[in-house]
Amino acid sequence: MASAYGEVYAEWRADPEKFWMDQAAAIDWFTKPEAAFDPSMGAYGSWFTGGITNTCHNCLDRHVSAGRGEQAAIIYDSPITGAKRTISYAEMLADVEAFAGALSDKGVAKGDRVVIYMPMVPEALVAMLACARLGAIHSVVFGGFAASELATRIEDSQAKLVVSASCGIEPGRIVAYKPLLDEAIELSAHKPEATVIVQRDEHRCELIKGRDHDYHALMQANAGRKVACTPVAATDPLYILYTSGTTGQPKGVVRDNGGHMAALHWSMNAIYGVKPGEVFWAASDIGWVVGHSYIVYAPLLHGNTTIVFEGKPVGTPDAGTFWRVIAEHDVAVLFTAPTAFRAIRKEDPQGSLIKDYDLSGFRALFLAGERADPDTIQWAERLLGVPVIDHWWQTETGWTIAGNPMGLGLLPIKHGSPAVPMPGYDVQVIDDAGHPVDAGTLGNIVVKLPLPPGCLPTLWNAEARFQDAYLAEFPGYYKTADAGYIDEDGYLFIMARTDDIINVAGHRLSTGGMEEAVSGHPDVAECAVIGIADTMKGQIPAGFIVINSGVERSEEDVEKEVVKLVREKIGPVAAFKTVMAVKRLPKTRSGKILRATMQKIADGEGWKMPATIDDPAILDEITETLSQRGIKKPDA
Predict the structure, then answer these.
(1) Which of 91, 86, 108, 69 is CA-nearest to residue 219?
(2) Where are the domains of the chain?
(3) Model confidence, pTM
(4) Count of alpha carbons within 13 angstroms of residue 474, beta-carbon side
(5) 3-class SS at 206?
(6) N or C: which end of the chain has fewer CB within 10 A?
(7) Measured between alpha carbons, how far is residue 226 from residues 58, 70, 340, 383 in Å?
(8) Neighbour-count burial of 476, counting CB atoms closer than 10 A to its CB (0-12 exposed, 13-18 middle, 19+ buried)
């Protein structure tokens, strides 16, 4: 079918307020908003002022009232423990009311903050929705985060209560959460009044009398209890999600209730092309924005079935686990990070495990979280036989800035591009002085203000930092801190974070463009390119490659071929001569490669262990590889 994208985007352009008021009509309001947009509120105005609503009501109560109570709300699938469970909308509502009652008894009320430090289990979603029901503000911290990082978030949010679990379970190991939580509370200048702990059979923990409460005991005591939804303003915060800041101090991204619901509800059909009742799977974690938006809120707002997956793309038990989940639970659309598919491809380069599963009901794969290299996209297209759609957004925006809207009819796919801006986003590319650049010219990607519904209105208790981080450098625009270009057809290409643009002998070059060339080598599973200091040229690029399983040729041969490939595709100007094969790349838990940290190690600068790192030992391996090649500078 032809795409209706142009018509819909033009409709938004012509009358943004009418467009968003129409989307808000899909949400239940206790009091309807007076207007779509109020330019007088906040840094760049606010959405749906005067509207009174509740996010939990829209995720659960209204579906049960509409007769969808017996439909599965959540399918829990844990290949790590072997547990599987389906929870209907009606059952979920009963659980959320019971837990909201328990929280209320502990003094949690509208506006209070609750930190949720949990593994990927249904109880985590119950806790999030119970907070929303009470009008309390939740702040989810990735389960297993270091105690010092958890303490920072408890202190910054002034959390009244913490919900946690006795442990998280990783392939081959159990991570005890309770000692980390106890240490975090010890470190934090602010002390929560209470904690609630989900005891897991795999590793139970001691509870401190008076402070710690057993989740299951509270649920039993409150079974059958009715707790009404607390009315909140559209502009009231729903949650705080901390994201790493460049200063090392985390930034608390705030999300409101009304705009968030309108945008996410619209996105489920328009962007992802799913209908209510279908199964949607975001293979992420609730500790990240993808988990907030597309494991919890958007699917439940839209009446879909969402999957809570406690596993990994490989190793639980093999590189076919994604195909099993899709086949077993009749998943229509999967959304995950490119790094997950690179991991699957490394373990099963021929995709031979796919044939073991019936994927006939599977319609599309969406990728986001980092740049999706064309090679990985084409590999997935070839093996899955469905559209593979890259799209681009940020923790701060909460939903797609640029994508290819499946529900409006797909536009032609250009590999390496997340396609076109979504309604609400006027995306532009400007130079460092703030002037527009020509089509195809690399520059700073910005969004003309105001931002659409669902984007951050501010940072938690840090308005000056919010202005400085996002609005000050380019007045009238939101700074994405990404670099790229828009081509003559209006397609956006994200090439790197602005701090990943390297300057080689006066030439501004994108590490993303080089990575695209490197990943084109058939033996390369994944790669990273960083700029390292050079006395002659300012910076020179260095590439790190992970070679596919089963490749029998020498690492040296592959490295030489990769150098040749980059010089052919980008030219001698790139000065690309250094490639190192490594077993693994250092990544965050959400799959982003830690290029900035690698660069600091290579340049001998002081660096701090990133709080979000998946496996700290990998940085030792990178340091050793750099030393062996004579690249690592003396420690600063």
Answers:
(1) 91
(2) 5-311+391-484, 505-628
(3) 0.86
(4) 22
(5) coil
(6) N
(7) 17, 19, 41, 49
(8) exposed
Helix (H/G/I), strand (E/B), else coil: 430: strand
C-alpha–C-alpha distance, residues 264 and 399, integer Å: 7
Q: State the Cα–Cα distance between residues 197 and 585, nearest whole angstrom.
A: 34
Give the residue from 263, 330, 322 showing the smallest Cα distance to 72.
330
HEC readout, 284-305: CCCCCHHHHHHHHHHHHHHCCE
pLDDT of residue 636: 38
* Placement of tokens 């502009």 in the chain: 235
303 C-beta neighbours (distance < 10 Å), count: 21
Would you place residue 516 in the very low, low, confident or very high pLDDT band (cuts 50, 70, 90)?
A: confident
Question: In whole angstroms, what is the distance from residue 45 CA to residue 91 CA?
Answer: 38
Whether residue 168 is predicted with pLDDT greater than 90 in this model: the reply is: yes
How many other C-beta atoms can be found within 10 angstroms of the C-beta atom of residue 62? Answer: 16
Peptide bond into 418 cis (omega under 30): no
Q: In the β-sheet with 427-430, what is the strand arrangement from edge to edge?
A: 427-430, 443-448, 477-486, 492-497
> What percentage of the chain carries pLDDT values higher than 70?
97
- Please report which residue ranges of 367-502 form alpha helices under DSSP H: 374-384, 463-466
DSSP labels, 472-488: SSSTTEEEEEEEEEE-T
Report in angstroms the alpha-carbon separations of 468 from 41, 434, 456, 462, 474.
18, 16, 14, 10, 10
- Distance set, CA 1 to CA 16, 275, 391, 410, 553 (Å): 26, 17, 20, 8, 46
Encoding tokens for residue 482?
Answer: 């990404």
State residue 632's pLDDT score: 62
Q: How far apart are CA 370 and CA 366, in angstroms?
A: 12
- Start-to-end Cα distance in the chain: 59
- To the question of domain 505-628 being in CATH 3.20.20.70, the answer is no
